[in-house]
Write a structure and sequence with these properties.
five-stranded antiparallel beta sheet, single chain, Heat Shock Protein 90, about 290 residues, five-stranded parallel beta sheet, Rossmann fold, alpha/beta
């Protein structure tokens, strides 16, 4: 486990470092929030132990900067008497725990070993995902563009460690395009010409709002069925629209590839090993095989 100590007082900083290293963990130190943040980006610690009151960048500012980058790193604050409100604020902003000064060596040993067990457990859970031989689930969402990115990311992460980060990103981008397509052209029945004109007129937001609030569209959903086997992951995306003749979708030319509208399907096809429309055109099935 890698631990970063951020403390402006030299004696306290060295005491923490020695104690942590004696427990067998890697430890690096910083003497203020600015140095701590820069070292965080280089060192990539599992656990950060930081003072709240520091020069240049205090603990709260350090916390906010780190949480913009990482939600996973464990952050424990050390606070002096009278700073309880700062500790509560830190917890509300995403800190995991806090200790009061003067910090007892036993407390440091206890808390570092406790969080080592947490980090170790997360790693084991990640490995367990790779042992899954079959998984199926269904997710249904409203026709809400604000949900698309989060759902695409969630579905991509559910593939576990079978794909590397680059492939996961490709999967996420492909799913994003198809989910948008299911809402735009499926549930809301926005034609390609209608969307192009809205983009030209800079009123795509207004078009989305009108379609979303139309009485005929309020109850329309998008259903995603996810299946994972020993060899592949498969997603089936079904919208509530009337369907369409997917054979009429124009094949994007080089000119069309420079335009946002009209290239989503092509981009999605490039991300997966299999891609096909089903039913009346309101169902699309995509599959990606594991590189094993």
């Amino acid at each position: 486990m890698k631990v970063l100590v951020v403390e402006d007082d030299y004696s306290s900083r060295e005491l923490l470092r020695i104690c942590i290293e004696k427990e067998g963990y890697q430890c690096q130190t910083a003497n203020d929030g600015v140095d701590g943040f820069n070292l965080f980006k280089k060192f990539n610690p599992d656990l950060i132990i930081s003072d709240v009151r520091m020069p240049h960048m205090n603990g709260i500012e350090l916390l906010e900067s780190i949480r913009k980058i990482s939600k996973d790193v464990i952050i424990v604050f050390i606070t002096g008497h009278g700073n309880e409100e700062l500790a509560l604020q830190a917890l509300q902003l995403g800190a995991n725990n806090y200790l009061k000064k003067p910090v007892d060596i036993t407390e440091i040993k206890t808390i570092t070993n406790r969080y080592y067990d947490v980090i170790k457990s997360k790693a084991l859970q990640s490995n367990i995902v790779d042992l899954i031989r079959h998984r199926e689930m269904e997710i249904e969402i409203d026709s809400d563009m604000n949900l698309v990115q989060s759902l695409a990311n969630y579905l991509s992460e559910k593939t576990g460690n079978f794909f590397d980060s680059k492939e996961k990103m490709r999967i996420e981008l492909g799913l994003n395009e198809l989910l948008i397509n299911a809402i735009e052209h499926g549930n809301w029945e926005i034609s390609y010409d209608e969307k192009n004109q809205a983009l030209l007129d800079d009123r795509i937001g207004a078009l989305y709002k009108a379609k979303r609030e139309h009485p005929d569209n309020i109850q329309k959903k998008v259903l995603v069925k996810y299946k994972q086997s020993e060899k592949f992951c498969e997603w089936i995306i079904t919208d509530s629209g009337k369907g369409f003749d997917w054979k009429l979708i124009p094949n994007p030319s080089n000119a069309q590839l420079t335009r946002i509208n009209g290239r989503g399907i092509l981009l999605s096809k490039l991300q997966f090993d299999e891609f096909e429309y089903m039913g009346k055109g309101n169902i699309v099935r995509i599959k990606k095989y594991f590189n094993i």
